[in-house]
Amino acid sequence: MSIENFKLNQTLARIVAANTVTPRIIPMLVGEAAIGKSSWARAFAAQNNTEVFIISVNTLADKADVTATKTEIHEDGTVSQRFFPMHTVKRANDYALENPDKLVYIFADEINRADSDVTSAIQTMFTERRNGDLELADNIRFIAAGNDKGNVTQLDSASRTRFSLYHVVPDADIFTNIMGENLNEYIKKVLQRHPDYILCQPSAQGITPEVDADADDDQSTDAAFAEFSFGEDVDEMSQFTAPRTLEGLSDTLNDLSREELSDLLAEDIGRSNALEQLVYAHIGMTACADDILTVIADDLSTATAQTNSAAAQAAPKRPRVWSALMNAHSRSDIETTISTLGAEEAGNLFAYLAYDDGNPSRDDQREMLIVEELLAITDPSKLELNRDALSNMVILNREGKIKSDVISHTQNNAPAQSVLSEKMTLMAAVL
Predict the structure, then answer these.
(1) pTM for this predicted structure
(2) Tell me, what's the pLDDT at 362?
């Protein structure tokens, strides 16, 4: 038999609720940093229609911040102790007194990542149910959380007997639900495929974890929650993947446009690129990071292909009268040829004239002459562009495939403006 990890989910919530019916035993969640223990506590309180008040124990400077005592030296030289409750504890107690029918929770986070005196003082508050000169309400309950490795204060056997110890790991589904629509689409896609990536440590090679077969991890997610081996070459400041770091990456990616992501992907940073380094900065060189980068790159390449395909589809076909116009001997010949065109043909001719296909052999001077003659036609119906043609020209313009000279003639030539159809005017405004 072995100690198994609980996921930060509803099962754990039911157990913690049962533990806190009486104040005698305090449930303590033990696990990696940044896996969402405090977020779970907030969700737990909301589920039980109450409030949780969080104390970040690791931010307390010394035991006086917990014991809530202050030494005062008076003018006559005498010394006295003044007692006062911690602000967070006072708020929790006030809420408990106002809601006597509810259990109200104080969540002592990272209890063992503080000075031993601070940790001891927190435990004393648990035992004596007093903070400074404040006696805690009967409906106050405590939940503690700590880290199982790193720079932590080890609890002695007597201290541990005050707790029910639950070794916990994050749950991808819970994290996804808590984040909701704020979770970046790329991260969400990766976690849906690989829920075990909710917690990844970098290996010495950057992406491949070494699984300890004897680790006390959930056997269904061995690859996710195994112990990781860190070689001597691994930087102690290397980041890792966890709910907290994923949330930071999600916020950053949500603020970047596709164009900005493409630019970062194309910008070299040594033997890497800027996008890779951005992702690694947030969640480390982990398997999760590599998959997120792959999903982003695939999406950007697909979007580029679709855009190119749309532009290709939007490219107008060469009009049947093109050869005649290119071989016309005079302006009068050009005018005669244009006069034979129906409304749709005239519109297609204009679209083709405006289309920049990158062919250097096209006679720009002659084409501008044709544009002038086409725009001089008095019958607006002779220059009709349907909805598809308008859409195509918008796509082409976005891709930089519209000749500015043609558009300039359309928008700035006064005679042209008087003969343009409603659709043509709309097109010019859109462009």
Answers:
(1) 0.59
(2) 65
